[in-house]
Design goal:
alpha/beta, Rossmann fold, GMP Synthetase, Chain A, domain 3, 2 domains, nine-stranded mixed sheet, 11 helices, globular, binds 5'-O-[hydroxy(phenylacetyl)phosphoryl]adenosine
Length: 433
């Protein structure tokens, strides 16, 4: 099912025309209403009249996370506060959060793009959808909530936490859809098993998972454990929240709502545009928002774009799985390592649970790299030789994928901390030194 066929299946030519018109309008808006943008454009020698088509976008300056912090809290609004009806925020690792203001119109757009996602997952007005993303300043809960209400489904606003109750209501209310982070879904899958309620008594069919990187291996694990189809849901606070992109029934790339959020891929170091198919940093310009439009926002997320029409009929551009964030990339003994690479290896080894932790440190000026991973109950053994053999196998696979050899530490099932929101998979002790 497609929510908005006109927009989701528009020809490439018409889409580019529409994007051009919308970009032009947005540039005029920020130039006249937002001092930092006006200054930035003047410094770069660009006037609103220089932006006539979508191709002109490369003339515009980038916006970074840093800018949002510098103009904290409301410096990047392009509308008077009287028009703002919602504030959301995302907490960074340090200091002040990033704040986003929405007008009534922005909230309508959020509902619209969210509806496209949940419709693509096959959900509709007859379905109970359990939203177990956190509600509050984080956009996950309220964003998924608006999406389900817009498609006319019955939203069960659980928020995260209170796992026993999550399972009880999922069962008693016959939830068909579950929206939460993939790591929390994994936690709920274990809790479901522990509850002793037979799987057939649950109606769950569909997962809307996002807010953190996850791999194909993790998808397989979740689909098997929960007996569902697990779909990707992508978004970020600065742009709107969940709903920037979604998978369809073919699970073959994440469709972006590009009539609202114009994507580009650039070289993360030089900022130069990269062609379709090449992995680089994803950049978004919001082209319909009023409250806090952002031009060429550097997401730090690494992915590539594919403009081929999808088998589902949608023409909207698809991005490949997010490899990680430029700032998630660990450099260990000079080698680039993404936690998602470790995850894909772990998910391929049947003896392992998909729960892991990377611990990086520096001892005597040398980087140390430990991968802790849980062994499944039925494979955990007191027999030293068996465990050593398994360790060797993991080490070998990681070495061939990463190009460096970590210290593998096998741990008991359920010993690595679980998360109810975004999982924490890396402890880099070098940062503190
Ligand atoms: O995580 C919004 C969201 C909520 C998306 C619920 C999906 C579901 P932030 O907290 O601002 O917003 O974090 C945004 O999370 O730049 C990515 O690095 C990462 N991320 C979000 N969705 C995905 C995904 C929300 N599907 C940051 N796959 C983004 C991989 C994701 N990474």
């Amino acid at each position: 099912m497609i929510w908005n066929e006109t927009m989701e299946c528009m020809s490439r030519e018409d889409m580019r025309k529409l994007q051009g018109i919308r970009l032009k309008r947005t540039v005029e808006r920020v130039y006249h209403n937002c001092e930092p943008y006006r200054k930035r454009m003047q410094e770069k020698g660009v006037a609103p009249s220089d932006i006539q088509t979508i191709e002109d976008i490369v003339k515009l300056p980038f916006t970074s996370k840093r800018d949002l912090r510098d103009y904290y809290p409301f410096g990047l609004l392009s509308t008077p506060m009287s028009e703002i009806v919602r504030l959301q925020a995302s907490s960074g690792t340090t200091g002040k959060p990033i704040v986003v203001g929405y007008t009534r119109n922005d909230l309508n757009i959020w509902g619209e793009v969210g509806a496209r996602c949940f419709t693509a997952y096959g959900l509709g007005k007859n379905d109970v959808v359990q939203v177990s993303y956190g509600y509050g300043l984080f956009t996950g809960g309220l964003g998924a909530h608006a999406a389900v209400e817009t498609i006319g489904g019955a939203v069960l606003p659980m928020s995260s936490g209170n796992t026993e109750k999550q399972i009880m209501l999922m069962h008693d209310f016959g939830a068909i859809g579950l929206a939460c982070t993939p790591s929390y879904a994994l936690y709920l899958a274990d809790a479901l098993l522990d509850s002793g309620i037979p799987r057939e008594e649950f109606k769950l069919k569909t997962g809307a998972f996002g807010a953190e990187p996850w791999t194909e291996g993790m998808r397989k694990e979740l689909q098997e454990k929960l007996g569902i189809k697990a779909y990707d849901l992508y978004g970020l606070t600065e742009i709107i929240g969940p709903g920037v992109g979604h998978e369809c029934e073919y699970q073959d790339g994440t469709h972006l709502c590009e009539d609202h959020f114009y994507p580009e891929i650039v070289d993360p170091v030089t900022g130069d545009p990269l062609p379709p198919g090449v992995t680089g940093e994803l950049v978004f310009s919001t082209i319909t928002k009023d409250g806090m439009p952002l031009l060429r926002f550097r997401t730090r997320d690494l992915t590539s774009l594919n403009y081929e029409t999808c088998r589902c009929g949608r023409t909207s551009v698809r991005m490949s799985r997010i490899l990680g964030r430029c700032d998630d990339m660990l450099i260990i003994r000079g080698v680039n390592v993404f936690p998602s690479q470790v995850e894909s290896v772990i998910c391929e080894i049947p003896q392992l649970e998909p729960h892991y932790l990377l611990i990086v440190d520096r001892v005597n000026n040398l980087d140390t790299f430990e991968v802790q991973v849980e062994v499944k109950d039925e494979f955990f053994s007191d027999e030293m030789s068996k465990m050593l053999e398994l360790k060797k196998l993991i080490n070998h696979r990681l070495q061939s994928v990463l190009g460096i050899s970590p210290d593998v530490k096998l741990v008991e099932p359920r010993s690595i901390g679980r998360s109810q929101g975004k999982a924490k998979r890396v402890i880099d002790k070098r940062i503190l030194k």
